[in-house]
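From the pipeline queue, job 12 of 40. The input is one protein chain; the requested action is below.

Action: predict structure.
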Amino acid sequence: MKKEYDFSKGIRGKFYSPDARFNLPIYLEPEIAEFIEKLASLKNMDTSQMVNDLLKKDKEIIEYANHLQKL
């Protein structure tokens, strides 16, 4: 690595985008990943869409259970 770098022609914020979204990778256990891939294949869906659909259903169940606890 050089001791000094010349940034005199650099442009500050050239690649900055305030609307950018950062998607974190999610690592599934091999057994779960295989199950999701098979299920997605059977339904002719993308694996990401399958995971999102399953998580949405879990979210609905959790929200419903929390609602019942408040009654």
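Job complete. Residues 61 and 67 are 10 Å apart (CA to CA).
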